[in-house]
Amino acid sequence: MLQDIDLSVKLGKQEYKQAMPELELKIGELQRQARLLKLPVIIVFEGWGASGKGTLINRLILPLDPRGFKVYPILRPNEEERLRPFLWRFWTKTPAKGRIAIFDRSWYRRVLVERIERSVSKEEWNKAYQEINSFERQLAEDGNVIIKFWLHISKKEQKKRFAKLEADDKSSWRVTAEDWEHHRQYRQYLLATEEMIERTNTHYAPWTVVEAKSVRFATVKVFETAIRALTNKIEAMEANRQDKPVAQNKSGKPSHQVKARQDKSITSLLGTVDLSKTISKKNYETKLAQYQKELRSLEYEIYLKRIPVIILCEGWDAAGKGGNIKRLTGNLDPRGYEVIPIGAPNDIEKAHHYLWRFWNHIPKAGHITIFDRTWYGRVLVERIEGFCSDQDWKKAYQEINEMEEDLTNFGTVLVKFWLHISKEEQTRRFEEREQTPHKKWKITEEDYRNREKWDAYKEAVDEMLLKTGTTYAPWTIVESESKYYARIKTLKTVIDAVSKRL
Fold first, then answer.
1. Residue by residue, what is the 3-state secondary structure of 156-172?
2. Location of each CATH 3.40.50.300 domain in the chain
3. Which of 108, 226, 273, 276 has its CA 20 to 30 A from that of 27?
4. Do 52 and 84 touch, CB atoms closer than 8 A?
C-alpha cells in the first residue's frame, strides 16, 4: 500500500505562501473553540527517520497558543516506564478537556521499533494492537479528537537526508548508528508499518499518510487534515448540544432515580452468599500472625522478581474495607506498598477520562498498590447517583475489562474483593459507630442516603460482578458479617494469588 503512494507530489512556493496564512488563522481559531468547548485533542506524528516530524510539529504549533498544548517526544522507555504496562506512560499524558497533546512518536513504537528489534515477543506486539485500539476507542468515546499522521518518504530519500545531516557539523549528531540500522531494515519496517496502519486505521482514530518528500506539500496537508478533523468534531458537538433532548425513561424521571427493577430473572451472585461463616477469636489470631508473616515474605519475593500486585477493595459501607486493608498491610514493609483511598474526583481528574486518575496510581513492577474503592465507582455510585450518563456507565464494563486485561497482560497480580454484609448488619454497624466516640467520624449522612438505595445498589453490584468477573481478573466475594473471617479470607486469597503467580 505505502509503496504505491506517489511521493513526487509537491507544492510551489507561491501557492504555499498563499495557502498558509489562512490555514494558520483557522487552526488558531479552532484551538480557541476547542478550549471553550472543553474538547481534548491528541495529534500523533509517526514516520520514517528524517521524514520531518520535528519540522512539521514546529510549523503546526507556531500559530497555536502555547498555553494550550504540550509536545511529548517519545523515546525508548526509561526504567520507571519499563516497570509498568506499556500504555501507562501514554495514559498519564492524555490531555485534559480543552487542551492539545502532540506526540512526536507514540504508543506505536511497540508494533514498529520494539517489534523489529525483537525487544518484545511476538505475542506482546500482537496483543498491543488490541490494547492500542481499545485505548484510542476509549479516548474517542470520551470526546477526544485523535489525529494520526504517518510521514512517508522513500528509502532513497531517507538515505539522502541522512547524508545531508551528517555532512553538517551542526546536525551530524542527529544521525545515529541506530538510524542507519533502521535504514538498512527499511523493507521490514515498511511491511510492519503497513500492518500497523491496516490494523489500527479506525473510524474513531484514522491514519493520514503524508507524502513528506516536499516539506511545503506535507505542511499544507497536515494543516488541512487537522483543520478538517477539528471542524467536523466541533460542528458535531454544537449540533448535538442544540438538538439532543434530555434522555428520560418511561417514568419521566432521570434513570438514576428509578428504583431497582427487582426482576427475579436477574442472576444474583450476592443472593447465594453464606453470611453465617465465622471463625473463633483464637483461630483468627493464630492465622492472622501466620498469614501476615507469609505475606511479608511474598512482598520480598515479588520485589526481587519484579511482579506488580494490585488489590481492589469494594464493598458495602461499613463492610470492613478499612479493617481488612489494615490487616493486609500490618506486617508489610511500607516501602513496598501504597494504599490509595478513592473519593469523588477533583476538578483536574474530572477534566480527563475517568480512568486517567487510576492509571496515575498503577504500581511499578515489584510493588503493591491497594485501592480503597476503585474504578468500579463508575458502575456503582456514579450510576446510582446519576453522576454520569447511562451510556457512560454501560460502556464502562468493557473499558474496565480492557484496562484489567492490559494490566494482567503485563504480568500484574490483580485481586478484586467485594465485601458483603446484610442490610441488617449494616444497620447494626452504623448504630455502633454512632455510639462509639472514636468511630463516630466514620458515619455520615451520605452513608444513610446510600442505605435507602440498598436494592438499587444490590442490583448494580450483581451486574458488576457478572460483567467484570473474568478469567484474568475474577472477583472474590468476602463473607464479612464476621470481621475475623473476612480478614483471614482476604489475606489467604492474596497469598494464594501471589503464590500462584510466583
1. HHHHHHHHHHHHCCCCH
2. 2-243, 261-501
3. 108
4. no
